[in-house]
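Sharing a chain and its predicted structure for anyone who wants a worked example. Both blocks are below, sequence first, tokens second.
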Amino acid sequence: MQMNAQKPWLKNYLEGVPHEIGLSSYPSIIELIDESFEAYPNHVAIESMGKSITYRQLDILSKDFAAYLQTLGLDAGSRIAIMFPNVPQYLIAMLGTLRAGFAVVNINPLYTARELEHQLQDSGASILVMLENFAHVYQDIANQGLVKKVIVSNLGDTLGPKGVIVNLVARHIKKLIPRWSFPCIKFNQALKIGSGHGFTKSHLRPEDIAFLQYTGGTTGVSKGAILLHRNILANIAQIESWLEPALQNRQQQLVFLCALPMTHIFALTACGLLGIRKGGKLLLVANPRDIGGFIKLLMKHPEINFFPGVNTLFHALIHHPEFTNVKLPHLLVTIGGGMAVLKKTADLWQKLMGVPIAQGYGLSETSPVVCVNTPFVKEFTGSIGMPVPSTDVLILDDDGMEVPFGTPGEICIKGPQVMAGYWNRPEETGYFITPEGYFKSGDIGIMSPEGYVQIVDRKKDMIVVAGFKVFPNEIEEVIAFIPGVRECAVIGVPHRKLGEIVKAYIVKDEPELTEAQVIQYCKEQMTSYKRPRKIAFIDEMPKSNVGKILRRHLRDL
């Protein structure tokens, strides 16, 4: 395996984007956030449920949380598990954990007790910080003594007097909080203790662990990607330099829409930490699944500049009747990641919003950004763009040999954003990271002679029909254009003669749509081995908390 000596993408970089980023001048993320707290004390850092928190207030609150953790006598490098949707408490706890000198274990707030148990056990977390709405999940495993202490927050904890009403509505009117009972300390009480104790600044090194970021479990059990402070700092610098041409000479504060959960790596780096780095305002969306409420929020905030999302979120918005009332005249970049963006969705988005979706690509293991389209892209390209500065991408065959341009192979990545390895899994680390330092992504892609990369599919999702390789993304792209199809997903199912055949799951937009119509359309559009032999109509797609369709759940049906 050799470095991609040509790096054909470099000649297509926008003017002002460096080919390489230097090593960060910050020893850790702490110094980067301290700089923003100092530079922008009066800027609004967070807006949530109509309440604003300034950088000065966020500085004090996260220090108080850090000081509380420092009273607990934890060992250096201890892990703190954090389980919140996008509410201010997440940022206070996440930043406070880093400032106290500990590592953050992000936990998907939609996890079941079994999934939560696995992550707490695997990470060896000392403390669990969570929103009361999910306390009943921990209740089921509370007697196992997995953590030393649990800190529980109410929804309205950071909202001042308004918080009392929010808690009342959540508990008694909307009945959002199932019953729970286990020993814990309340979030605001922890802040109060920390405030009285006083904070001691931690001195961390670039090699210290910042996050244990668990993968979605797409390849069996969920694994913790070890992201060091230097990995995250590198990726923030890579994204910042990539966006610089779009931000030149800009005086106004940037507004980042945080609709994707920040416990997910895409939103954590590209919204949360990049937003803080730029002194931006983070507009938090606690429940993006409430599309009606989300649209009301968008109508109140025409000042939004950055809109990261996933295909299912863009799709749900553009198909909601109220969305035609949304006007975002200051939108600089819409970034699509997490899953493939479908052309049909992207074209409708651009028609309504006047801004194309610039697709990007990354993984938990790469902090996350690897490739992205330039912010000045004029239309949806179907590609994931080019590798960001200081990143090398190779497309390799099963024998680890580089394939010619335009030939599918596994995307392998080398750069300062690549994780140190998988937590407590040296064998898997050795398998996925080559001796030369390339991370084998498990994604199949092709590279053009200009250095643009296109995802074909996940290696493990590939379907082999009578020896022919079939990529689900391609079939889904075709089916999405059938009138009456709202969403679709394709998997391979075993077949006695052919090895596997294609099965399509479809959520209808129009009840009249029939199996025969789908099969006829596919017949006109695709060669025989690619066509779905089985069609199943379902009421809704199984999705992750980011809105990614979970094909593995369809396989379990």
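Comments welcome. The CA atoms of residues 321 and 376 lie 29 Å apart.
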